[in-house]
Amino acid sequence: MTRSIFTTSILLIFLLFSLKINAQIPFEVNNNGHIIIKAKINDVEGKFILDTGAGLNAVFTKFSNKIKNEKTNNFFVGHRATGEELNVDLYNAKSLEINNKQFSDQQYTIIDLEFGDIDGMISLQPFRNTPVTIDYVNKKILFDKPTKKRKKY
After folding, report:
1. Are 143 and 25 in contact (CB under 8 A)?
2. Residues with Cβ within 8 Å of residue 87, at least 6 apart in sequence
3. H-type alpha helices, the chain
4. Which residues of the chain have pLDDT under 70?
5. Domain boundaries in the chain?
6. Residues 90-118: pLDDT tens digits?
7. Is 0.85 topped by the overall pTM?
8. Which of 115, 99, 111 is nearest to 64 (CA)?
9. C-alpha–C-alpha distance, residues 102 and 114, integer Å
10. Which CATH architecture has domain 28-128?
């Protein structure tokens, strides 16, 4: 009887822990130290830098030529780490998929840049309501269950 309760308790703990993790995304680290993930924008797969400091998703011109770009009437103003001002157009992504997980209501900009085989940058915008852990040892990005959205006043 005691053994049965112990086994059930262990299984329950394992189940609760496994339910806590919503997604795991494998990544690579390139020679420059950037985290590289695969993602699909508008159903076209590419290799992207996960840029935790970027305020916006961005695709490079070469990749933008492979997808249909739906320009919005909006723009984004920000600054690079160097202080250079950015004033860029925004585009709606019909779909953004990372490791078979769909993210809705995403926007991106197009930047005229070539960076080897990298197609752009994914910011933390898709995960704005989700705690993120970057596990460098196992080369996985862990996403806990999304937090509840706060009420707007």
Report:
1. yes
2. 75, 76, 77
3. 2-20, 61-64
4. 1-22, 145-153
5. 28-128
6. 999 999 999 888 888 899 999 999 999 99
7. no
8. 111
9. 27
10. Beta Barrel (2.40)
